[in-house]
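pasting Sulfurtransferase TusA for the record, 81 residues
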Amino acid sequence: MSGEPLKADGILDTTGLYCPEPIMMMHTRVADMASGDILHVVATDPATQRDIPQFCHYLGHELIQQDTLSDSFNYFIRINR
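structre below
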């Protein structure tokens, strides 16, 4: 990440889970969040690199940051209603 770290309103750790579980858990978590909130998702499934941007696109949420670390993927999603 560059610059100031993002502050998330919630975190969802899907470490060790594989498709479709991370997306199903995100769907449930997003439903409990307010418009404008930022959700930080941590994942280890490489399929999330494809699935999470598509999730955001189809449901109208904004993927504001995506980082790949040596052992995980981090996504910051702004919830839009």
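The CA atoms of residues 1 and 25 lie 25 Å apart.
The mean pLDDT is 95.
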